[in-house]
């Protein structure tokens, strides 16, 4: 464990807390994006440049864009007051959990030895396409589900017969006035 | 080294879950969910680094990120639909069903 | 060609927006035909999968550097048949039912993607792909639950999404830890690694994550809060799919595949599942008794019936597993049927409040008759199919010396009959309720679907030996082999 990664992880923890407790949602979203950006650095330093690129461009970039546009579309962020108590209970809860976390992880993993090796291709591309082909199919399916899901959820509300009649009446009335 | 990364993964998971359990704004709940997923990314990538199987774990993580973005898109579409219905992002406004 | 089970629905789903433009009825026809196709494909595999046989399908596609490997055993095949059967009838039902929702193209596309996701989940050979297909099915189902865009639907979908996303994140975190410890995620390799030994404390932690995650997907009692909202809010054919199939595939199948095939059935897991199963069975039935909304009552009843399945699987004797798998299949048929009937009732009368209904049996003879058949099946009245599976589970409980649980199972069965007869009496018989004078029987395709499922309930009950030998037995064998009931055991008792 080198010092740089450790400090990056500590910073990420701080940003996570900020994302949870900042009052302004846009700032929360930006804290989350910063956390993802730092995560990308950690991934890069752990010999995983491709995952780092995805983390940076898709998670820190695209998801933040999604968040910010929805926040802008709804424009009601200051009307939802978060409860006060979670902020005061949080340090205590975090400390308690952190201690338990420390003890459990130490007990379970301090004598960890990597064992067994999985099938890996000779390059990243060969591994992703050749070894994890089924996941690529799954990705395609997930993207379809997302596209159709968003289309279905944001489609024009279906009008009931009554509403249609009303709308036509209003239209007729408007034309008659002319 | 393993333990340190795992401890931080545990912390991310906990902070995200805490936001999910205590938050009121729907968007903030989704932010909590995003924080939780960081734990998964960290554990996979660290495991790949330790084993020298970074190609494999990066494949996992890229698939995971694609799934996560799609999930977020659908979740945010739901948020917009709920907002159209209630005019608010408060989850307490979504308490008509009794569970 | 196992890949067809995934690619066929996916391809048709991708074409949906185009088809919708070409002809109004094309999406309806093609979706139902696709489901029929996968059903026939599944039936064609029945002879291939004898008892204990595992069929591996592996392809190097025409020199492309792509390798897809899929696996089918008796358990997967049983689930595949259940999925395509219920989804075929749900698709046919949708032809009329989904007319007034609008957006049929997107609806069928999501429906087919959900099916493709479940088929993939059932056929995959490793834990990570299982997660991916779990999410495919889940994301499609969130959108489908909220398809009506009204307040209740969106609320239910959002709750479902949040809880389910936490569950899958937990499952994936446990998966990452498994990978960290063993260096592999393939089911077969994992089983070998687990046999070689696993830190028991870590095993406990992982099993707890998997139990909570998949338990939430299956709506086992302490993790059930989302189901009574999500299932009734969805359009009726989707309720039928969610209750009939989705909770079983993404909850029970995945749990059993991961825990049994990989870790065996440790005593702790067996005990925990027995307790949770019994709790689900009894609580679900008790709460169902107090419901006034037809679909909500059915949703609680699903929790109760899933309890039976979990108990049978947790007991782990061949007979109990057989009963559980049979009940899984049967529950898909009769709960699918009952949800479609509830949809038909709502379609005809405009309400699903039981207090506002009454005496509609004469106006809706087909819906009334099929609801009666569904009632008898779910309550375990002979000769309908529910009778056999409940009998098997109860006999297995008695054989294993679990007399208390056996008594509970019988008691719950009586309770089930009671609250379903209540529906019958309140809604279908007695005096005609006010405002119900002009209602008409539902259109052809809706009746076709309910009659088809009702016929299936009866046929499976009558042809019980054939079904047991050809469908259930292979599934049971693959599970008993996995947990080592016949001879070898992963975790020496």
Which quaternary structure do these chains form? heterotrimer
The succession of helices and strands of chain B, N to C, reads: HHH
Structural class, judged by helices and strands of chain C? mainly alpha
Q: How much helical structure, as a percent, in the residues of chain C?
A: over 70%
Number of strands of chain C: 2
Characterize the largest beta sheet of chain B: strand count, sense, and whether it forms a barrel: none
Shape of chain B: elongated
Count up the helices of chain B.
3
SSE topology string of chain C: HHEEHHHHHHHHHHHHHHHH
**Relative strand content of chain B:** under 5%
How would a textbook summarize the main sheet of chain C?
2 strands, antiparallel
N-to-C terminal Cα separation of chain B, in Å? 43 Å
Amino- and carboxy-terminal Cα gap of chain C: 39 Å
- What gyration radius of chain B follows from the Cα positions, in whole Å? 17 Å
> What would you say the CATH architecture of chain B is?
Orthogonal Bundle
Tally of structural domains of chain B = 1
Principal-axis shape of chain C equals: globular
Verbal overview:
The complex is a heterotrimer of chains A (178), B (99) and C (493). Chain A is an all-alpha fold. Chain A is built from 7 helices and no strands. Chain A starts with a helix and ends with a helix. Chain B has a single domain (2-88), classed as Helix Hairpins. Chain C is mainly alpha-helical and 493 residues long. Chain C has one domain. Helix content of chain C is 75%, strand content 2%. Chain C contains 18 helices and 2 strands. Chain C has a two-stranded antiparallel sheet. The two termini of chain C are 39 Å apart. The chains are: A mainly alpha (178), B mainly alpha (99), C mainly alpha (493). Chains in contact: A-B, A-C, B-C. Chain B binds chain C through residues 2, 9, 13, 17, 20, 26, 29, 33, 36-37, 39-40, 43-44, 46-47, 50-51, 53, 57, 60, 63-64, 67, 70-71, 74-75, 77-79, 81-82, 84-86, 91, 94-99, and chain C through 128, 132, 135, 139, 142-143, 146, 149-152, 154-159, 161-162, 165-166, 169, 172-173, 176-177, 179-180, 183, 225-226, 228-229, 233.
